[in-house]
């Protein structure tokens, strides 16, 4: 998932809806909401990238990644080789 224009517009529309609902719901905090809204719109892409990277890390925790260990090569049975030559 990339932080492209289409995803940014969706996130911006979602954030605008959240800000509008908060503005209508909390009349006492309207000054705070209008003060913080531009900063939140500026931080959309970094916040999306942070949460995306956190989501990608949770997928890799389930997989157990180990380096393959060197296994000894089984040696052929020397008795059978000597018996076959005779």
TrEMBL record:
It holds the Pfam family DUF2933. Keywords: Membrane, Transmembrane, Transmembrane helix. The chain crosses the membrane at residues 34-53. The keyword Membrane applies. It comes from the Bacteria. This is DUF2933 domain-containing protein. It comes from Oceanisphaera sediminis. The keyword Transmembrane applies. Residues 63-86 are annotated as: Disordered.
